[in-house]
């Protein structure tokens, strides 16, 4: 073997040794940690829902207590509960009808509002005596809508008659129960419930001012009957088809046109009043009797009051 071949052989051996060394190093070297690529994800910005102020009880409030400012607290809710309050000024001084627990929202149903708060403009609350018959078997409840029927017993030339007196009247109170709530809290004991279930003796009705005289006359001179009707029933008699009763007090003869128009005001009509013959239709029947002389009462604008037992009658002359 010549020298050149020996040199090449030695070089190959050295190259193999170097390559083997590097291979060993690479096999024993620690593996590099994987590169984690972090991607930023843009999240949509969600707007917070608006809230509203709600008034809660800051502590337990017992029925009958007068609400003070320190009994109330404010909180933020998604919405105000039905018939709830958003201002403490609307509650301070109110009387609590039922016990209110702490953190409970205060609503109108928990307060004693008073019957007058349930009257509309131009209405009056009138109390009438009732029994099981008048009150439709004592099944009438505060808040019900009724028709008031009037029965006049036979007297004089007027026979017995019955007709609707007032349509679509709201009951404000019946016995001890009112639209504002029961007079006493409900009893848990069945015997106490039977003891408190006394028959109703009075009913309070919400009537228009011009109808007060009708109801008072009918109460004193006949019998009333309350007939329950559906709350959505809007059927009412057409008053324009029937003659209007003449008032007891006539307007002055020298009134100006504006003053004559003012006589139709509900307050003036109530003050002028009406008589029992007008309520029963007695005058109209006498005037419309064929072949009979027309007798118009009240030409002088005066009347005399006739009292028969508990019945009172105003006769014009």
UniProtKB/TrEMBL annotation:
- Pfam families in the cross-refs: RcpC, SAF
Region Disordered, residue ranges: 281-300
Instruction: Specify the SAF domain's residue ranges.
Output: 52-112
| Coiled-coil ranges from the UniProt annotation | none
| Identification of the protein by name | Flp pilus assembly protein CpaB
Matches recorded under SMART domains: SAF
Leader sequence segment: none
InterPro entries, alphabetically? AFP_Neu5c_C_sf, Pilus_assmbl_Flp-typ_CpaB, RcpC_dom, SAF
The major lineage groups are: Bacteria, Pseudomonadati, Pseudomonadota, Betaproteobacteria, Burkholderiales
């Amino acid at each position: 073997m010549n020298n050149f071949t020996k040199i090449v052989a030695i070089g190959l051996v050295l190259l193999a040794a170097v390559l083997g060394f590097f291979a060993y190093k690479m096999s024993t070297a620690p593996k590099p940690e994987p590169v984690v690529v972090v991607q930023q994800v843009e999240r949509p910005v969600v707007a917070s829902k608006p809230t509203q102020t709600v008034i809660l009880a800051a502590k337990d409030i017992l029925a009958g207590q007068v609400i003070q400012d320190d009994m109330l607290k404010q909180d933020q809710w998604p919405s105000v509960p039905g018939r709830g309050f958003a201002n403490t000024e609307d509650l301070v001084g109110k009387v609590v009808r039922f016990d209110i627990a702490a953190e409970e929202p205060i609503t109108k149903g928990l307060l004693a509002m008073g019957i007058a708060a349930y009257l509309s403009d131009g209405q009056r609350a009138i109390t009438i005596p009732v029994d099981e018959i008048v009150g439709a078997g004592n099944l009438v409840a505060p808040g019900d809508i009724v028709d008031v029927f009037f029965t006049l017993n036979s007297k004089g030339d007027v026979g017995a008659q019955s007709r609707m007196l007032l349509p679509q009247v709201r009951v404000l109170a019946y016995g001890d129960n009112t639209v504002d709530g029961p007079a006493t809290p409900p009893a848990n004991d069945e015997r106490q419930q039977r003891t408190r279930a006394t028959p109703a003796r009075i009913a309070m009705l919400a009537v228009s001012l011009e109808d007060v005289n009708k109801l008072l006359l009918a109460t004193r001179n006949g019998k009333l009957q309350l007939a329950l009707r559906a709350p959505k029933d809007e059927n009412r008699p057409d008053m324009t088809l029937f003659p209007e009763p003449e008032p007891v007090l006539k307007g002055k003869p020298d009134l100006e046109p504006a003053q004559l128009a003012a006589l139709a005001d509900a307050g003036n009509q109530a003050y002028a009043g009406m008589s029992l013959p007008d309520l029963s239709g007695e005058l109209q029947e006498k005037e419309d009797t064929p072949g009979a002389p027309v007798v118009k009462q009240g030409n002088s604008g005066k009347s005399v009051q006739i009292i028969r037992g508990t019945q009172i009658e105003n006769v014009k002359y």
